[in-house]
Write a structure and sequence with these properties.
Layout (H helix, E strand, L loop, with lengths): L1 H12 L3 H14 L6 H9 L18 H10 L1 H22 L2 H20 L5 H12 L3 H23 L6 H10 L5 H14 L4 H14 L6 H17 L3 H17 L3 H18 L2 H15 L8 H14 L3 H18 L2 H17 L3 H15 L5 H19 L4 H17 L3 H17 L3 H16 L8 H24 L3 H14 L22 E8 L2 E8 L2 E8 L2 H17 L9 H11 L14 E4 L21 H4 L2 E3 L16 E6 L15 H13 L4 E3 L6 H8 L2 E7 L2 E2 L9 E3 L10 E3 H5 L8 E5 L17 H7 L4 E5 L9 H13 L3 H13 L4 H4 L1 H4 L2 E5 L1
Helix pairs in contact: 1-2, 2-3, 4-5, 4-6, 5-6, 5-8, 6-7, 8-9, 8-10, 9-10, 10-11, 10-12, 11-12, 12-13, 13-14, 14-15, 14-16, 15-16, 16-17, 16-18, 17-18, 18-19, 18-20, 19-20, 20-21, 21-22, 22-23, 22-24, 23-24, 23-25, 24-25, 26-27, 29-33, 33-34
């Protein structure tokens, strides 16, 4: 059917009327139900048909009961029938002077619109007919509106039949011709914005965002839902996964209100893709399953392909390759039956890549052959380009190692194509694959160039509101090749090159306000008189860099990575569970970690009281470095060196001390026990704040019912020193949802402050935050070292540093250390130095509970 349509169109445009008519009839024999069929009939006969072919179960124009049932049972089809067919035929009849036909078409559209409106569905069709009626007194305006409706139907058909940019000129004419404020103008603007996504993403987002802010979501929920859908798709292409997911969820709610179930299923399929990229596996499966459940009632839906693809993608990402291949078998079968060459090509391409990963080259070769057959068909130019680009990626899987040069050549074309489409979501995989292929061909420089381009794309979404989960999701696809390049530099003795590769990757993880520089190559150095130590674990190779001013050294050792990581977990677990605080808690693990992580660079740390800045990386984010115990001297690391932790060397800054501003002391003991039944009462929090008031007599104190979110956030923005004593709740899967528990505000609402909320604040530059609460500096799995959740939020908001905890601590047990910290900080406003002095005071205590690292080593200073 696709080839016949294109042939008929080509003959029509050449003026070969007899041949064109024969071609149109041949096309209609092959396809009488698609959105293009109405256009084919119009070109063939020039006469509007009495009903709208292509819409299942379409009612007869004069049957009011059938129209009402149709609108109640199939609101999406009823709206589509009215907008895409009936008003199109009305416009055609008006322009041809067929007044009786035009009036009949308009009455039919109004009946459909009234029925939808009466059932509480989308009222834009009824409102548009009312607009047409008001325009009827002016023949010139009526003809202009009729032409706009005919163009709208044509532009919609072109939009649906293409992948990027088709229908743009036609829809632009509609936007110009349609009256301002009319539903037609709004619908045309929505699809015009969608067509812009592949051409100018910034313009598309501006247009769609403006329309979204003005859309009447009460009367026109289908229009508002479609606009949100397109806006979310633009953001998905730009790798803004969280914004995309939220947009799809909002769109699904609007489409559900409009009763447009098939469109809602499509949106849920896209939401599943966003959830998958965010690492939310369960949510991705749930969303895809929900879409498939809806589509059971729509077995011929074009959206089945997107839904099955999203489900297979999530399964493959989880490592369930055979399950994913079964889903893709169904996808290939469905798309071939449907006859859509683009969907069929994408299904074959996706399955070919998966089969190559499974080692089933013979089956993959059959899919690649199917791809080539589809490419040989007569296709619209945009579809042909899309299919070629998608196919290149599949073919590369077979060539990447056997023929790296051939793989690079294919990927060059894919990278060029997706770059011109402003589709970063599709551009990243071929870029990452080309880096791998170049590395396989010993083109290290080319591989690094591709990696840096990937990181620049990731850097474009490095803004407040984009969580560490988002950034880690983007970096998963390049982690392995980045590590291999880093190891090549390391094995060649190029310590600086290996460090730069690592730093470029880690800097891409940081929120914008934490990344001191975009290009780290000329900016890595330490303040005078300090040394930085950065760690990476690649397979069974431990890499440890030391940087002093600009002089870098690298120590590379082979280790038992599994045992080393187990020691980190064991030490943390033993210290956290030592309720009686025995002095020898975790001693064996602390000895082992000292020998593995500190001993190899001990000579570079020579010098009494030499300050150390640690960049622990993901593998060692939870190491209690202050408590690492030298088995030869029996001294803790903190006894010999002041310590601070940063997420990247590029984040090291020398900040001037600030003295103007408030000290804010907050007790979270006044939280609502009914709202937080799992949290214990905190009598020690109030006592801690009362005692700190003696050190800071002029401090702002928020406790009890005054420690609400509104009061706390207002005080935080004025403060140079913030102390919070209370409950903190870590969300391991979604660090941005980690929260400080506060007193409820008016109406019992707002009794918390999340990490995401913190990122929107503007703290005094250089301020210090002390969090006397549980797990405020613990690093969730696979997150940048210690900088996720609450610490990430405070630092992104402008704080110089955060004192927080790696594990759960008992209420009141750390009070002596907190009091000593603030006495030291009052004398010298240096957070790292003050924390060290407090920890040394605990180590020298006569009380065994205070001496134990189970208490004092839970806290560390993160930042500058």
């Amino acid at each position: 059917p696709q080839a016949r349509y294109n042939l008929a169109l080509a003959l029509d445009r050449q003026g070969l009327d007899t041949n064109a008519a024969a071609a149109w009839r041949a096309y209609l024999r092959a396809d009488a139900t698609s959105a293009w069929a109405a256009e084919a009939r119009r070109r063939l006969t020039g006469v509007a048909l009495p009903a709208a072919p292509g819409v299942p179960n379409a009612p007869a124009p004069g049957d009011s009961a059938a129209i009402d049932r149709f609108a109640a049972d199939m609101p999406q089809e009823a709206r589509s029938l009215g907008w895409d067919h009936v008003l199109d035929e009305w416009g055609d009849a008006v322009l041809k002077g067929h007044e009786a036909t035009a009036e009949a078409r308009l009455r039919f559209a109004l009946a459909l619109g009234y029925a939808l409106e009466s059932h509480g569905r989308d009222a834009s069709l009824a409102d548009e007919v009312r607009w047409i009626r008001r325009t009827g007194s002016s023949p010139a305006k009526l003809r202009s509106l009729a032409r706009a409706h005919r163009d709208f139907a044509r532009g919609r058909a072109e939009y649906d039949a293409s992948l990027n940019g088709r229908g743009l000129a036609t829809l632009a004419r509609v936007r110009s011709a349609a009256p301002a404020g009319s539903p037609l103008r709004a619908w045309a603007s929505s699809f015009y914005g969608g067509a812009q996504i592949g051409i100018n993403s910034a313009r598309a987002e501006a247009l769609l965002g403006k329309l979204d802010s003005r859309a009447d979501s009460v009367r026109w929920p289908a229009l508002a839902g479609r606009t949100r859908w397109l806006l979310a798709t633009s953001r998905l292409r730009q790798l803004r996964y969280r914004e995309a997911r939220d947009g799809y969820v909002a769109s699904a709610r609007l489409l559900a209100r409009a009763g447009e179930e098939e469109n809602r299923a499509a949106v849920q399929a896209y939401a599943a893709t966003a959830e998958h990229h965010l690492g939310n596996t369960s949510a991705a499966y749930a969303s895809a399953h929900g879409a498939l459940t809806i589509l059971r009632r729509h077995p011929s839906s074009t959206w089945l392909h997107s839904t099955l693809w999203a489900l297979a993608d999530a399964a493959a990402g989880d490592g369930y390759l055979r399950a994913a291949s079964r889903v893709l078998d169904e996808d290939v079968a469905i798309t071939e039956l449907a006859g859509d060459p683009v969907d069929a090509a994408e299904a074959h391409s996706t399955r070919a890549r998966l089969l190559m990963a499974m080692g089933e080259e013979a089956r993959a070769a059959r899919d690649l052959a199917g791809l080539r057959r589809i490419r040989q068909g007569l296709l619209p130019a945009q579809a042909a380009a899309w299919i070629r680009a998608d196919g290149w990626e599949a073919e590369v899987a077979a060539l990447r190692h056997a023929d790296p040069a051939g793989a690079v050549a294919l990927l060059d074309s894919a990278v060029t194509y997706w770059g011109t489409q402003h589709n970063d979501l599709r551009l990243l995989p071929p870029l990452a694959a080309r880096a791998e292929a170049r590395l396989a061909g010993d083109d290290v420089r080319g591989a690094e160039s591709d990696l840096d381009r990937v990181l620049r794309l990731i850097g474009a979404v490095r803004r407040p509101g984009v969580s560490p989960v988002d950034r880690m999701a983007l970096l998963r696809m390049i982690g392995a090749v980045s590590d291999r390049i880093m190891m090549r530099h390391a094995r060649a003795g190029d310590a600086w090159g290996a460090l730069l590769r690592l730093e470029r990757t880690r800097t891409a993880l940081l929120p914008a306000r934490l990344a001191a520089v975009r290009d780290v190559s000329g900016h890595l150095r330490t303040p005078r008189g300090e040394v930085a130590v950065e760690y990476a674990l690649v397979g069974d190779t431990l890499l440890v860099w030391t940087l002093r001013d600009t002089a870098v050294r690298l120590v590379r050792r082979t280790v038992n990575a599994e045992a080393l990581v187990r020691s980190v977990r064991s030490a943390r677990s033993a210290l956290e569970q030592a309720r009686e605080r025995p002095e020898n808690a975790a001693t064996a693990d602390l000895h082992r970690l000292y020998d593995q992580l500190i001993r190899p660079v001990r000579t570079a740390l020579a010098g009494a009281e030499l300050p150390i800045t640690l960049v622990p990386g993901e593998a060692f984010a939870d190491v209690p470095f202050a408590a690492l115990l030298d088995p030869r001297t029996n001294r803790y690391l903190v006894q010999d060196h002041p310590l601070r932790v940063v997420p990247s060397l590029s984040a090291i800054r020398r900040l001037a001390s600030i003295t103007a501003g408030e000290t804010v002391l907050v007790s979270g003991a006044g939280f609502d026990r009914r709202a937080e039944p799992g949290l214990d009462p905190l009598p020690g929090a109030d006592a801690e704040v009362r005692l700190l008031r003696r050190t800071y007599p002029h401090a702002t104190v928020l406790s009890g019912s005054s420690a609400t979110r509104a009061n706390v956030t207002a005080s935080f923005t004025r403060a140079i020193l913030i102390h919070f004593a209370g409950h903190a709740v870590l969300d391991d899967q979604h660090p941005e949802r980690s929260r400080l528990v506060l007193a409820p505000g008016e109406g019992g609402m707002g009794g918390e402050l999340s990490a995401k909320d913190l990122e929107t604040l503007r703290l005094r530059w250089g301020s210090v935050v002390v969090l006397s609460a549980c797990e405020t500096l613990r690093s969730p799995a696979a997150r940048p070292g210690g900088f996720a959740g609450l610490a990430d939020g405070f630092l992104a908001a402008g704080a110089a540093g955060v004192v927080g905890s790696l594990w759960r601590v008992e209420d009141g047990a750390t009070l002596p250390m907190m009091l000593e910290f603030h006495r030291a900080y009052r004398e010298r406003p240096d957070g790292a130095a003050a924390l060290r002095r407090a920890q040394l005071r605990m180590i020298g205590s006569r009380d065994a509970r205070e001496r134990s690292p189970a208490g004092w080593a839970a806290f560390r200073y993160a930042g500058n």
